[in-house]
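This section describes the prediction task in plain terms. A model, or a person checking by hand, is given the sequence of a single protein chain and must write out its three-dimensional structure as a string of tokens. No templates, partner chains or ligands are provided. The sample shown here is typical of the held-out split.
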Amino acid sequence: MNRKVSLNLKGDVGIITGAASGIGKEMALKLGRDGANIVLADIDYDGMCNVKENIEPYSNALAIETDVTKVKDIKNLVEKTINKFNKIDFLISNAGIVGPYDFENTSAADWDKVFDINVKGMFLCAKYVLPIMKKQEEGKIIFTGSTNANKPGGYVVAYRSSKAAVVMLAKSLALYAAPYNINVNAICPGVVLTEIQKNMIKEVIENKEISFEDYIEERAERVPMGRFTETKDVAELAEFLVSDSAQFITGQQIYVNGGEWSI
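The expected answer:
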């Protein structure tokens, strides 16, 4: 099989979930500008349309309203992608939520929701994309994990537990998929100041004598490289992992966190 060795993604086709905002949006824009045809999947259709408009000067984009916890939605996503583009070169399974901050205030329903979106959603996407990639005898699957997958903490316990499960899903699926020339990896960002993260921080400091700005500055200084992870940092790693330059990288948990372990 002839393989080009470059980060040129022109003509490739990829699905990105959670693509309407945050990390997913940044990855969609980055890979779309590289020439990849991007299928955006999210529950926020208007948000996806905005991303789609910004991709289309560079490549084709398709926005499909998708609830990653529903089998019928994932089947529809895969079917429409194949009908439009005839192949799937990569899947970036990124949709996720943080969930409650406090453990004792986490209900069974809260716990189930976090695991349904963060773990079941990634399982379903991989399950229905995998047969396409097996038939093609190649493909790339990326799961968005978290530094917190390997970092115990006394808050957002459901989130940490779900991301630990995501990492194991990636490593195990990598072994299953390797004979079919399919690479599977987990990207694990540090703290990224998305709107979800900002809202959680505001909740945490609500009764503390510190401003949001001062709290952010103090915490960022504790990252060895002096700042929080940015969406572009994650997108640049995703760009490499879906390219032909990463053909022999699979089953890995790759951190994008500036050396963040003690924050």
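For orientation: The CA atoms of residues 6 and 90 lie 16 Å apart.
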